[in-house]
Design brief:
Elements (H helix, E strand, L loop, with lengths): L43 E2 L5 E2 L11
Antiparallel strand pairs: 1-2
Length: about 60
């Protein structure tokens, strides 16, 4: 990492009914560096607050 590089982290909680399609969008300073970004789904709960398998959900970084 160069001295001018920045390391930022964001944690987001999304509440409500899930549906197909994009749920969150973030603006980034340089979309040419998308491979340098990482997104992970850490936890998912159902409407009954029971934990679901996060591997059943997908996070995608794209233009």
């Amino acid at each position: 990492m160069s001295a001018s590089a920045m390391l930022l982290a964001a944690a987001t909680v999304l509440a409500g009914s899930l549906r197909a399609g994009p749920l969150l969008r973030f603006r980034v300073p340089d979309r040419n560096r998308l491979p340098q970004y990482r997104v992970r789904v850490l936890q998912v709960t159902g409407e009954d607050y029971g934990l679901r398998d996060p591997a059943s959900y997908r996070a995608l970084v794209s233009n």
